[in-house]
Amino acid sequence: MQKTKKRAVSVLLSVLLLTALLTAIPMTVFAAGTEYYIGGTDPGGVDWYVDLDALMLDISGSFTDGDSVTLLGDISFSDCLYVDVDVTIDLNSFDLTIDGVSSVDYALDLDTSSELQVYGPGTFNINGAGADDGAVRVGSAGKLVVSDAVMEIEGGSVFGLLVLNTGIAEIDGEGEINISDSFTGVRAMRGSARVSSVSATGTGSRGVHADNGSFVTADSVTVTGTDAYGIVANVGSEVNAGSVAVSGQGSFGVEAQDGSKVSVGSIIASGAVSIGISAQNTDTVVDVSGNVRSEGSAVVAFDEAKVTVGGFAESTNLVSSSGAVYCNDAFVEVKGNVTAKGSPDFTGVLCDGGEVRIGGSVISDDFGVVAFGGGGEVTVDGAITVPSGGTYIEIFGIEKSKSQNTKPTTKAGYFTYTENNDNIIGTVWVKAPASSGSSSSSTSEVPKTGDSTNMVSWGVALALSVMGIVSLPIAKKKMSK
After folding, report:
1. What confidence score (pLDDT) does residue 24 get?
2. Mean pLDDT across the stretch 216-225?
3. SS in 3 state form for the chain?
4. What is the pLDDT of residues 287-321, one digit of tens each?
5. How does the average pLDDT of the chain come out, rounded?
6. Reduced to 3 states, what is the DSSP secondary structure of residue 2?
7. For the whole model, what pTM was predicted?
């Protein structure tokens, strides 16, 4: 009898504890509204409408808090679907298509503090090509949730998806949000978005643009256009993407600044003078787990930014006065090889202050490593490879062959190459072969002809060159190759 009482008390306490926990957990429960059914055949006994036009006409275009809409067939609607309360749409294995028209700003517009939950299976198509500003807007403190459904956002003269002031757009379960053919795929202004794929097109277009502490996650970002950007992150924002691919002259894979953080799986930037990564300002961090491949510079880092590339960094068509990796008072680490190809007078690694670490080798068809202006430190754990007539290392305009290393070394296991220019130190360390001591000489490369000038002024010059403001030569020398 005593055991039975104890068991009963235990069960009661468990029930009370569970009740308390459930009470403490916040849950999204909409107020009781009206259940509407649209499309297909009238099942009888319900509030049924032949299409969304008929429903919106009957309710004067305004839902009541807690309303729900269930599809009984495929539905098309040409106007703005405006939501200013909490509404649920059950696609019920059908497709709902909203086509924006010129008289509305957005095809789907969620006003302040409203919430739209879309359930699948089924597809929710939003076409913003005809609307004035874009396809979808999520207003301040609004929320869009796509659960086990596919949302296809297409078009948008300005925005595919705009999320404002603590607004949220996200997928749940097996849901997808795919954005295509817009000028700016995702624009987050103090908002957050979690989407599947993003594509944008047009001169100056942007796949993802996040600022003022926004948070955006995308599986893939693809952008085409002159001066286009895959990802732009400003003012303490955070963007995560599986892959970024941009195509167009002067395009950027990632531009991050003002303390923002960007994490990407891989970057491909194609087009003349395209840039893989541009990062600047204190606390700005760009982390690429895989490779960065571009026609122009693969990595450009300024002003105490930090960039890490887990794979290789490759520049396939560098112009004069540029480098595959450029560091100006920042930190850059490439764990694989750095490869530089292009026109004359380009460099594998350019360091104008700060620190560069290369886990693999530097392979360049012209200059290998150059330290200038603010000097800085470059560490190469592999080898530096340049062709006959190329420059192995240059520090403050002084060219150094492989054998012209400083003795004794200042880093055990490495050959040291260093110069002092008015108390500004430039140093390059290259891993010594296991069979040789770091203080010994090694075979030099084939001698070349020509001369070079001091490149102290490159810092500002290259910054302007990268931004497309000026075009400057990297060094004044005549090569015989």
Report:
1. 39
2. 98
3. CHHHHHHHHHHHHHHHHHHHHHHHCCCCCCCCCCEEEECCCCCCCCEEECCHHHHHHHCCCCCCCCCEEEECCCEEEECCEEECCEEEEECCCCEEEEECCCCCCEEEEECCCCEEEEECCCEEEEECCCCCCEEEEECCCCEEEEECCEEEEECCCCEEEEEECCCEEEEECCCEEEEEEECEEEEEECCEEEEEEEEEECCCCEEEEEECCCEEEEEEEEEECCCCEEEEECCCCEEEEEEEEEECCCCEEEEEECCCEEEECCEEEECCCCEEEEEECCCCEEEECCCEEECCCCEEEECCCEEEECCCEEEEEECCCCEEEEEECEEEEECCCEEEEECCCCEEEEECCEEEEECCCEEECCEEEEECCCCEEEEECCCEECCCCCEEEEECCEEECCCCCECCCCCCCEEEEEEEECCEEEEEEEECCCCCCCCCCCCCCCCCCCCCCCCCCHHHHHHHHHCCCCCCCCCCCCCCC
4. 999 999 999 999 999 999 999 999 999 999 999 99
5. 88
6. helix
7. 0.86
User: Does position 457 have pLDDT exceeding 90, yes or no?
Assistant: no
Identify the pLDDT of residue 239: 98
